[in-house]
Amino acid sequence: MTTRARGTMGAFAAVTTLFFAWGFITSLIDPLVAAVKGVFSLSDIEAQLSASAFFIAYGVVSLPAAVLVARRRAVPSILIALGTMIAGCVVMLIAANLALYPLVLLGLFILASGITILQVAANPLAAALGDPKFSHFRLTFSQAFNSVGTFIGPYIGAVLFLDGLEVKEGVAVTDAVRASALIGIDRAYFWLAGLIAVLLVFFVFARRTVEAAAPATAPHASGIAETLREALSSRWAVLGGAAIFLYVGAEVAIGTQMALFLNSNAVWGLSDAPAAVGPLARFMALDSDPGVSLQEAAKAVSLYWGGAMVGRIIGSALLARVNASVLLAIFTAAAAAMCGYVFAIGGVGAGYVALSIGLFNSIMFPTIFTLTLERSTASQEATSGFLCTAIVGGAFIPPLVGSVSQATGYAAAFVVPMLCYLALCGFALLSRGAGVVLRDEPAAASIH
């Protein structure tokens, strides 16, 4: 192996650590939504504002981040992003100690702002560190490491945030349980601040390796308005943005309500069926009490994200052999069908089906991203920044799902992500017949 090849592999490994970090932090939102619902006595819609505060940052920060990366280049932007994430963790610590929900929302927004900069900065790096012919394969494979973070996050959050906490109607939250949940939130974000600081130091030392492996590009000074106009001038950038909006909204809405859905009496709340499945019972650490508690249900949410982890590994192999548009159409249709089952049939079986949706979510984001970049007539920076802006779907779809669940029930609310997945299937079929725009730079993808 040549020195340059070893340098490229080392740079790719350094960038991959960032995928893991933001996957872990993002997936903590799922148990956090359930926790704040009980701690602050919130409705479903109010609790989902936690997801909104986090994902609204993508709508606000993505284009400024694209301008930052264009002017300062990727590596300095990554260091700024990590510093912003540490600031967000500090605000979360203050929020937990003062027990103020508005501060929780502010902390999540700041934390997500750093993650947004991180994603926009990582896109061109991930594109440059390998053969452009294998962009779908390479980027989907690297995101398996992101999925390790999303798999671990909900489980740790459930252990720290939800000990003894229940949010069903008629169940009172005691001061002791509320205090325990707040201490868990404090502890989680304290350690996160420390781990991000370690990552910052690591990347300071790795920056030369990354900069040496990436192709040299001259900084340029495109403004936010100019970047947005360029992105909107491309039909495929707009279509891809709509697809990312719907995908992220559906995925986040399912994840943030999964624990409440599984804990509901209509699914697993009063059922001992999961206890009969040995590996599942051990994973959820089920006790001898009848039914599934909120904390036990929240642990199972890791399996939703774990399905995405497994799916990305399988998807990496499939994308090397199957046309990306065709595979995306198959996966989106399958996810829509599973949401339809939960909505129309429900019951204990719906719990297993809902958890399995993550397997089909697996390839959607990177494939939508790269399909769009290949077809967009706008520059890579403008298209990437616009697509990351579209992740703001995670701020709007979850409250919509929360309003439906509040009015009709958690299972019925799956009709909203079902419609999102059907629209994504249409995007996949449309991309099949669209031409690819030839450009010098390779396509890149990120993950929220």
UniProtKB/TrEMBL annotation:
It is found in: Cell inner membrane. The keyword Transmembrane applies. Gene3D superfamilies: MFS general substrate transporter like domains. The chain crosses the membrane at residues 12-29, 49-70, 77-100, 106-129, 141-162, 188-206, 236-262, 302-319, 326-346, 352-373, 385-404, 410-430. Keywords: Cell membrane, Membrane, Transmembrane, Transmembrane helix. InterPro entries: MFS, MFS_trans_sf, MFS_TsgA-like. SUPFAM superfamilies: MFS general substrate transporter. It is a multi-pass membrane protein. The keyword Ligase does not apply. This is FHS family L-fucose permease-like MFS transporter. The lineage of its organism: Bacteria, Pseudomonadati, Pseudomonadota, Alphaproteobacteria, Sphingomonadales.
